Prior knowledge:
The complex is a heterodimer of chains A (92) and B (806).
Chain A: H1 2-26, H2 30-55, H3 61-84
Helix pairs in contact in A: 1-2, 2-3
Chain B: H1 4-25, H2 31-47, H3 50-54, E1 59-61, E2 64-66, E3 71-72, E4 75-77, H4 79-102, H5 110-129, H6 133-151, H7 158-189, H8 194-199, H9 201-206, H10 210-224, H11 233-236, H12 242-251, H13 256-268, H14 272-295, H15 299-321, H16 324-327, H17 332-367, H18 383-397, H19 403-418, H20 426-429, H21 432-456, H22 475-493, H23 496-510, H24 533-550, H25 552-555, H26 559-562, H27 567-590, H28 595-616, H29 632-647, H30 654-674, H31 678-699, H32 712-742, H33 749-760, H34 765-773, H35 775-797
Antiparallel strand pairs in B: 1-4, 2-3
Helix pairs in contact in B: 1-2, 1-5, 2-4, 4-5, 4-12, 4-17, 4-22, 4-23, 5-6, 6-7, 7-10, 10-13, 12-17, 13-15, 14-15, 14-21, 15-17, 15-19, 15-21, 17-18, 17-19, 17-22, 17-23, 18-21, 18-22, 19-21, 19-22, 19-24, 21-24, 28-32, 29-30, 30-31, 33-34, 34-35
Amino acid sequence: MFDTVLIVALSALSIALLLLFIRVVKGPSTQDRILALDAIGVLLVGFIGIIMILQDTSVFSDIVLVLTILGFVGTLSLSKFLERGVVIEHDD
Amino acid sequence: MLTLLHWAALSPFIAAVLIPFLYKYLKRIHTGWFVLILPLVLFVYFLSFIPRTSSGEVILNNLNWVPSLGINFDIYLDGLSLLFALLITGIGALVVLYSIYYLSKRKEKLNNFYVYLLMFMGAMLGVILSDNLIVIYVFWEVTSIASSLLISYWYTREKSIYGAQKSMFITVFGGLSMLGGFSLLYVIAGTFSIRELIANADMIMASSLFIPAMILVLLGAFTKSAQFPFHIWLPDAMEAPTPVSAYLHSATMVKAGIYLVARLTGVFGGVPEWFWIITTVGLVTLIWGSVSAVRQKDLKGILAYSTVSQLGMIMSLLGTGSAAFYFQNGDNALYMTAILAAVFHLINHATFKGSLFMAAGIIDHETGTRDIRKLGGLMTVMPITATISLIGLASMAGLPPFNGFLSKELFLTGMLNVTEYGIFNLETLGIIIPVIAWIASVFTFLYCILMFTRTFMGDLNLSKLKVKHVHEAPVGMLISPIILAALVIVFGLFPNLLAYSIIEPAMAAIAPGIISPGEVFDVHISHWHGFTPELFMTIGIIILGVLLFITFKKWENSAFYRGERDIFNSVYDSGYNGLIAGSKWITRIQMTGRLRDYFIYMSIFIIFILAYTMYHYNLPAIQSLDLSPVPIYMWLILLVFVGSVVIIPFINNRIALIIATSVSGFIVALLFVLFRAPDLALTQLLIESVSVILFMLVFYHLPKLKKVKTPPKMKIVKLIVSIGFGLMITLGSLSAFSMGQDTDFSSISEYYTENSKEEAGGYNIVNVILVDFRGMDTMLEILVVSMAVLTVVSLIKLRFKGSEDI
């Protein structure tokens, strides 16, 4: 019973993933796409959490942590690029 | 063991090393004087072998070189080798003497000249003294190289370079085919030794490789001896200094092919193919050379074509003489006359052609031209040169009492004998052979008269010459041609001097096993045979030749006489240019310089190789796929993954592109999680993010995405290639998977799961494998990463300013 609930949750998350992907494809603006990518990152966190319960393991917990950090960094670099045109600014 | 004979063969090479020092430090003495000693000593040394070879003895000295491959520098000296050794060293000495007066000490680079000449002499001695085919080949190629170097001695002249290049191409082509022929002989008989090959001649004859081996070897002999249609290099080799022409291109190198044919007659002789190929090529060369010689206006051109013609004559004699092997113990005199004539004419040709070349060189030296249209009336000015030329030309034309007369008589006898053989379809075709020989002799006679009358008779027209004060050559220059002309007379008057000392042993060497040991061939050379057909043929030659000469004024303006270039030269030239143009064309159509095209080639080849392999092994074999069930959410994830990959070619915005690839990267990481690979998932995520950041970093410097108009055809090609590639890889991996399940190999991974704790002390199997079980891979991958880092740093820091050479 519990497994069924988890599978349903995973399926729901997959549908969400699909919808987010459609947003990535359609756009229309770059900001839309970046937000969709960021949301995919967050969505993956949930995904991996459910899989950990499903597979009865805790080895993926550090991946969840890394994923959150990287999602943030990725979004940040994309946003910074959109705003300033460069990712790392020089002082000169 | 190195014997004295080995040293004799190698001594010119050793001497060649010393020449530059002598040239540099003893500038006051002409370097040629030092060189002269060597051929003289060698000539005397080889003369000392005459008593031994004429008694039928042969000398064999072994020296291992590469014994494991059967390649040994074995010296084999019999009558034939000795004859050639005497020619090479004797004429070599005379040519060196002549060159001392011909080449100026101050103006010419004598060190180069004598190094090349000695190199050539050593190589030639090596060719004729070796018993081993590979050693013969090695020396053979050295003669080609030395010859090219000598032809291009005046390397600033375009014609010299052209001549050298042409002779190099043609003779090296022949040399390589000859090497192929030798290898086939080795395949048949298992030995490179000529003696052993002759001993196994029956086995070789029975082999199916006999004909290919024969043709390949003959290609080598024909190109070297300037036989039709490979004769075209010889007239262009006349750009060499005259001593070189006299030595290489009349007396020695061009006879290397003759030597090879004579030497291998014992192996190949007796079959109709050998008989017909050599006889036909020889006769065609004979007539083509003599007709072409008539058209030449340059003294050396005439002599070059006459050499071609005379070589053809010797070759055809060797061909007809090979019939002796068919009969083995038949009427020897009938067949062996041809071989006798070949050997005798070989000697005669070397003597008179050498003297003629030297005389031509003298005329060139003293008047500044070799063109017979500008020359004339030199008889009173240069009486000695005129006498030498007269003797040489009379001998070449076949007039008594000179030696050329004797060998021409023997030649005609040999050719007439052919009609009596009654083998190889000769009953019907045989009569053509003496007729061709006779016509060619008429032309020979004609160009001899022309050359003499145009050069020495008539009026001396000083206005056409560059040199205003024409006079006789210095004595030193005249010594060598005088000696040769004297030999022409001596051999003409006393031919039996040579008969049993040199000619008979050479014949015995050409035709081994024809007579039983202890017997000798009958060598009977005389001026007067009685009223034989040969005599009437000679009279006919003289009458017809004189008639042609008298009426020559009529021929003079014909197109035949004006066009002096050989038609095969244009075949060679257009072939050469066509080869270059064709290669350029082929390169241009495929080497486009576009990476896209090269990727298409590679992909097409990979597709074809995979498709062919699958077809050949009845694949794809996708049976028994033992798959686990796929839950519904997995399908959705895969749908997103496929979608993110498929969408990429259609995106026009670069940031959207990066985001789309990033999505597929995230999903790969997710798949790793689903398939329980935490380390992979972690690494994948990190790499994915770093790539995104890197993309953004270089984004600014990337060019704008451009819409390239591709023609629809190209689009279809690309589509087919990419679909085919994907299909093949998928089918390949599926087949590999299902075949892996069919076999009963157990996976090695069980060992790791069992031993990772006990052996390595770690629970994380992936990490234990990476750093413990298979740490070497990891180390080298770290190296790859460090190299990439260093490369990036150097690419950024060290920029070429544009002028440096990379």
